[in-house]
Amino acid sequence: MRAWFLIPLLLAAIVQSHAAMGDPPAAPPMLDTVLVTGEQPGPGLWKVTRRDSDHVLWILGTQAPLPKTIRWRSDDVEKIIASSQEVLADAQGEVKVGFFRAVFLLPAALGAKKNADGKTLKDILPPDLYARWLLLKQRWLGNDDGVERLRPILAANELYGKAIGKSGMTNKNALWPVIEKIAKRHRVPVREIDVPIPVDNARQAIVDFKSTAGQADIDCLATTMARLETDLDAMRARANAWAVGDLDKLKSLPYPDQRSVCLNALAANANLREKIDGAKNRIRSEWLAAAEAALWNNASTFAVMPISEMIDSDGRLAKLRAKGYVIDEPQ
Q1: CB atoms within 10 A of CB 315
Q2: What is d(CA 159, CA 176) in angstroms, rounded to the nearest whole number?
Q3: Is a pLDDT exceeding 80 seen at residue 202?
Q4: pTM for the whole thing?
């Protein structure tokens, strides 16, 4: 990641919010769940239809993290894509920052990564929280002392990423490249939905990010640590449930996520809150508009969406249901 894009990319990466977690135990438990390997079917497809038409929008629910070593059995999906007129990518934010302005502000961006006045995490975290941090740091980051000078919100990101990787999982979307290849093989057009998120004043964005340091910043790290202390085994269970297509199991597992707390840390600044809220609303509305257009224009359309949002009572699938579309879940 280019350091000068740190602030806007951070905004784009956490525009989705989820429920926060409860209090953690004092030390991380050992992992019990064994990850599935080899070729797996993944979940069935959701079917969205209009009541007055036989046009169909097929949606594959994606999951993260997933086991590194599984291979997705995509035969059934390939048949549907081959008979579709369009593949609809998931919407995402695309941050726009002027290159020369970004390079000019590189020293300021690097400074925004670190705690003020050269302080370390030991200086700013409560003693009990820092003791827990040291346990998790040793387990997942080893002797990386450079992380000690990072802002808590960025230390949380480093810790979480390493823990996922060393637990045999990956947050990388391994499904989309397969879907793109299938679409290309069958000459089905892919519609990308990139919502531009302008950063008109990069210097101000850095100042805004610096202003969010404080208790909310510490809370982000605390909830990230809590998730790693309490939820890693459940993450593996969710990954397995997705891999074998066990939707009931996936729904039954609680889905805590630290991102809402980290999002709140940024939203403490009015300028950042406005950009985050605007990005969330535009990403949702532009995807919904594209989905509705596809349902009107195409006999068959294939799309992808995070499965956590598909089972969310306030997600995009729920919005389509509220508009009168018929939603059939996979059996």
Answers
A1: 18
A2: 26
A3: no
A4: 0.78
**Residue position matching structure tokens 């892919």:** 190
What backbone torsions phi and psi does residue 47 show, to the nearest 5 degrees? -120, 120
Cα 302 to chain centroid, rounded: 21
Per residue in 32-87, pLDDT tens? Answer: 566 666 566 667 789 999 888 899 999 998 888 888 877 777 788 899 999 999 99
Distance between CA atoms of 140 and 121, rounded to whole angstroms? Answer: 16
pLDDT band at 156 (very low <50, low <70, confident <90, very high): very high
Q: How many CA atoms lie within 13 A of 257 on its CB side?
A: 16
Using an 8 Å Cβ cutoff, are 169 and 233 in contact? no
DSSP for residue 150: B
Alpha helix (H) residue ranges in the chain: 6-13, 75-82, 99-104, 106-112, 121-124, 127-140, 152-166, 175-185, 202-211, 215-230, 232-243, 247-252, 259-267, 270-297, 307-310, 316-322
Answer for the pair 61, 310: CB distance below 8 angstroms, yes or no: yes
Res 102 pLDDT > 60 = no
Please name which of 123, 290, 320 lies closest in space to residue 195, comparing C-alpha atoms: 290
User: Which has the closest alpha carbon to 161: 175, 147, 176?
Assistant: 147
What CA–CA distances, in Å, run from 184 to 54, 178, 179, 277, 297?
25, 10, 9, 34, 20
β-pairing verdict for 38-40 and 70-72: parallel
The rounded distance, in Å, linking the Cα atoms of 2 and 192 is 24
